[in-house]
């Protein structure tokens, strides 16, 4: 087995794994596009070494495989930046939700008892566990 055949098989396997993760809903579609593009890029570079050598000449790199390391490093930095932006956005949303939940709990504690019982009765017709949680009861496993 040559290294070219190995890299071709790896690229095809990588694309199949990404598609399988999307099918089983373990990877969101928005992230799968990025990984599919990486897989296709690997497939192109693996199947045609002329592209790699041409890119090395354009960047004035003497050793063509070093282009792969450079592209991999750039990709890693871009991915880390993207994930940092996503984590920052999620952190802001969690903070906002926590603040809203705190305000709702404070409002619920300040309501008169008859209003809470009336609300609990309405909730019990919707979902019994929700009413139990509103009364302060803990359910097993939570």
TrEMBL record:
Highest rank taxon of the organism: Bacteria
Bias-annotated ranges (Low complexity): 113-126
Regions that span the bilayer: 6-22, 34-54, 66-87
UniProt keyword annotations, A-Z: Membrane, Transmembrane, Transmembrane helix
Alphabetical list of Pfam families matching this protein: DUF2304 (PF10066)
UniProt region (Disordered), positions on chain: 112-142
InterPro entries: DUF2304
Record's protein name: DUF2304 domain-containing protein
Organism: Effusibacillus dendaii
């Amino acid at each position: 087995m040559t290294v070219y055949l190995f890299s071709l098989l790896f690229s095809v396997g990588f694309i199949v794994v990404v598609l399988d993760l999307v099918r089983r809903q373990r990877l969101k579609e928005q992230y799968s596009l990025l990984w599919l593009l990486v897989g296709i890029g690997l497939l192109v570079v693996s199947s045609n070494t002329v592209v790699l050598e041409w890119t090395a000449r354009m960047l004035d790199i003497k050793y063509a495989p070093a282009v792969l390391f450079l592209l991999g490093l750039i990709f890693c930095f871009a991915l880390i930046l993207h994930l940092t932006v996503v984590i920052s956005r999620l952190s802001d949303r969690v903070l906002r939700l926590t603040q809203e939940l705190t305000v709702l709990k404070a409002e619920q504690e300040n309501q008169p008892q008859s209003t809470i019982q009336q609300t609990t009765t309405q909730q019990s017709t919707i979902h019994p566990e929700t009413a139990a949680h509103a009364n302060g009861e803990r359910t097993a496993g939570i």
